TrEMBL record:
Annotated family: Belongs to the myo-inositol oxygenase family.
Positions annotated to bind Fe cation: H144, H169, D170, H242, H268, D301
Name used for this protein in its record: Inositol oxygenase
Cofactor binding comment, as recorded: Binds 2 iron ions per subunit.
Species this protein is from: Pyrus ussuriensis x Pyrus communis
GO BP term, pick one: inositol catabolic process
Keywords: Ascorbate biosynthesis, Cytoplasm, Iron, Metal-binding, Oxidoreductase
Pathway where it operates: Polyol metabolism; myo-inositol degradation into D-glucuronate; D-glucuronate from myo-inositol: step 1/1
Species lineage: Eukaryota, Viridiplantae, Streptophyta, Embryophyta, Tracheophyta
């Protein structure tokens, strides 16, 4: 179980080690917004299904019957304790993630001066990040990554970029580790949302924004804030976390992934957009297209947390070949 404790704002002293949690956490967004598992109805094989068709059928999820432990229901007490720690997580997230904080994080991490390693090395490193707060996921992270990637590969055999995107989408969680700055959880995981404009009501635990410095800033608290309609998400400051970090790493190391892949990595935790439809007025045409792929990806991200084990050694050569195709051998992190 995750124990979150109060901590000072990171400010410029980010390099200082701040232990804020006894355990490493992840996928908090899913715990909050999904209220359990979702599994898709039968998806037919990839006979000409395009992203749009899948995205539209997103509504057609049915309630799950079992989680990865084969349990129908979670323990009531465990559930309420979990809720409390998740709420505390979002309280800290909503207070500390300000426009200035995100700007500072982007500047700091775009230096990419911490570690040099390959994508696969990072997958293995992520195994040190154990998500004990998620009762539906007790496998090492690399299995979650491979389960997601393999599930997509089955339904979209020709979209190799999508398989690789799935494999690497959570690598940014290494921000929790000491050599990456050991950022607190509220700066790494959970749902993301824009800064520089009003906080949409659909954002989970919205009430805690009242304590955010930006909340009463007249430049930031209108519908468009500092942005204009249709400006494109590229121009929008999104709360800092593993999504934006991994996007930065991929972009700065000149990954040749298609734009939709980079979009998935960057916005997969942006639940207010892809679940609630908030902030769509800031999107441009390209974002609209990419969003369809994100919605395809997203259900595999949730669905694949199952007991279906993936033989890592067996699938490794395939993923190494994709890494070689789309990434340099060593990346700066
Ligand atoms: Fe994630
Ligand atoms: Fe994930």
């Amino acid at each position: 179980m995750t124990i979150l404790t109060e901590q000072p704002e990171l400010g410029l002293q980010m390099e200082e080690k701040k232990i804020i949690s006894s355990e490493i956490d992840g996928e908090i967004n899913e715990l909050v917004l999904d209220g359990g598992f979702v599994v898709p109805k039968e998806i037919s094989k990839n006979d000409g299904i395009v992203a749009q068709d899948i995205a539209v059928s997103n509504e057609a999820f049915i309630a799950p019957e079992i989680n990865s432990f084969g349990q129908s229901f979670r323990d009531y007490n465990a559930e309420s304790e979990r809720h409390k720690s998740v709420e505390e997580f979002y309280r800290l997230n909503h207070i500390h993630q300000t426009y200035d904080f995100v700007k500072q994080m982007r500047e700091e991490y775009s230096k990419l001066n911490r570690v040099e390693m390959s994508i696969w090395e990072c997958c293995e490193l992520l195994n040190e990040v154990v998500d004990d707060s998620d009762p539906d996921l007790d496998e090492p992270q690399i299995e979650h990554l491979l389960q997601t990637a393999e599930a997509i590969r089955k339904d979209y055999p020709d979209e190799d970029w999508l398989h690789l995107t799935a494999l690497i989408h959570d690598l940014g969680k290494v921000l929790l580790l000491p050599s990456f700055g050991e950022l607190p959880q509220w700066a790494v995981v959970g749902d993301t949302h824009p800064l520089g404009c009003a906080f949409d009501e659909s954002i989970v635990h919205h009430k805690y924004f009242k304590e955010n410095l930006d909340y009463n800033n007249p430049s930031y608290n209108t519908k468009n804030g500092i942005y204009s309609e249709g400006c494109g998400l590229d121009n929008v400051m999104i709360s800092w976390g593993h999504d934006d970090y991994m996007y930065l790493v991929a972009k700065e190391n000149r990954a040749t992934l298609p734009k939709a892949g980079l979009f998935i990595i960057r916005y997969h935790s942006f639940y207010p957009l892809h679940r609630a439809g908030a902030y769509r007025h800031l999107m441009n045409k390209e974002d609209e297209e990419n969003l369809k792929w994100l919605q395809v990806f997203n259900k595999y991200d949730l669905y694949s947390k199952s007991k279906v084990r993936v033989d890592v050694e067996k699938v490794k050569p395939y993923y190494l070949s994709l890494i070689e195709k789309y990434f340099p051998a060593k990346l700066r992190w």
